[in-house]
Amino acid sequence: MDGFEDDLYLSAEQAAQQLGISLPTLYAYVSRKNIRSVKVDGSRSRRYWAADIERLAKGKSAAEGSGGLAELQRVAATSAITLLTEQGLYYRGQDVLDLVQRASVEDVAELMWQVPGVFDDNLPRRPKSASALLKLFNGASSAEKAIALFPLVENENPKAHDLSKEGYARTSVDVVRWFAALVVGADGPDVRPLHQFIAQSCGVDGAFEDLIRRVLILSVDHELDPSAFTVRAAANTGVSPYYAAITGLASFRGRRISYGRSEIVTRFLEEVCSARDPAMPVLQRFRQGEALPGFGSNVHGVIDPRAMSLMATLSEVFRGDEEFKRLLKAAEVAEEVVQQPVDFILLLTFVGRKLGLVGQEIALAGIGRAIGWLAHASEQYHHQGLVRPRAKYVGILPD
């Protein structure tokens, strides 16, 4: 149909068939089940958002064997923040590949939080014990420092307990600025635009400054990934933005997700950049049947659009750079043997390496992701009632 991508929308007949219902029932479902549809120009027909139909079809199947519990558990998964499709990634309906070309990090944060003009020159009060605590945590990662420091910052700033939509956004600014300061080793948050503050703190030039802006935007959100789901679970109870961020940072360390295994990717990249032949670390692992760190973990149908965008930027910024040439050669060999494109996390790790973020190469992504976590936390708190899913008990029955 003109103006529509066939794999994103379904006709009424297709939607009804997939759900196993009649057309009149489908029309009733549009309002009752939140099915989104659009009118076809020059026709009385409508096209129905395929993801909504798939959601209902899966839920119908699950509910048939769950006694209705599936509907309860889907409540926390309802979101208007990020759309993840095989065609791209969208924040609040806007293509991320477009945002990364024209928007500031602050613009994207305000879009995600739905509170314009929230970035101002006001900074949170710094706890008196901050210096002593940071000295005690010298050598710890920025995430570990944040987990220890954020409760003290919250206590010093009572407005952090203002959980109105605007209050949540104001405190979210403080959280993101504080975490950025911890990543670059600054004494405290700064009012400069995030990408400029990070670049200047790391002592890099203007080309790097724009690269940092792009990385932060691309890292903001990836729909309901495990870390965002965990943050929503905490926000469901009514915690402050500081504790929502702590939850996200803690879950980011889990070994089941790629960010929690970032040390493996970092070691692999070091081997690639230092080997006599950058293809050897790839081939050695492949011959031994080992997984290749940084390849094959994305959830997109063809290539992660974030990786595609970042690779294009790196090709400009690091044109002629010897380490980047090595990375490209290793990636070429890896893509040939495993038939998988390079993952976003490997490119993030390369950026962190070039910024000198030794031991926390993907921390830059954590700053961006904090924006997304806080968007999820605010949405969960303000637009969902207290969610209490039930467990489907499968253990030993009592006598």
Summarize the structure.
The protein has 399 residues and is mainly alpha-helical. The chain folds into two domains: 9-60, Multidrug-efflux Transporter Regulator, Chain: A, Domain 2 (Orthogonal Bundle); 79-387, Citrate Synthase, domain 1 (Orthogonal Bundle).
- In CATH's first tier, which class of the largest domain applies? Mainly Alpha
Could you list the spans in which at least 5 consecutive residues all have pLDDT below 50?
A: 62-76
How many individual helices?
19
Helix/strand/pairing category: mainly alpha
Mean pLDDT: 89
Give the number of DSSP strands. 6
Beginning-to-end CA distance, first to last residue: 61 Å
- CATH homologous superfamily label of the largest domain: Citrate Synthase, domain 1
Q: Main beta sheet, described?
A: 3 strands, antiparallel
Total number of distinct structural domains: 2
- Fraction of helical residues: 55-70%
Adjacency order of strands in the biggest sheet: 1-3-2
How does the overall form come out from the CA principal axes? globular
Secondary-structure element order, as H and E? EHHEEHHEEEHHHHHHHHHHHHHHH
Give the CATH topology of the largest domain.
Citrate Synthase, domain 1
Radius of gyration: 23 Å
Residues in β-strands, percent: under 5%
Q: Identify the CATH architecture of the largest domain.
A: Orthogonal Bundle
Structure description:
The protein folds into 2 domains: 52 residues, Orthogonal Bundle (Multidrug-efflux Transporter Regulator, Chain: A, Domain 2); 309 residues, Citrate Synthase, domain 1 (Orthogonal Bundle), CATH 1.10.580.10. 56% of the residues lie in helices and 5% in strands. Strand 4 and strand 5 form a beta hairpin. Helix 9 packs parallel to helix 10. The longest helix has 21 residues. The termini are far apart.
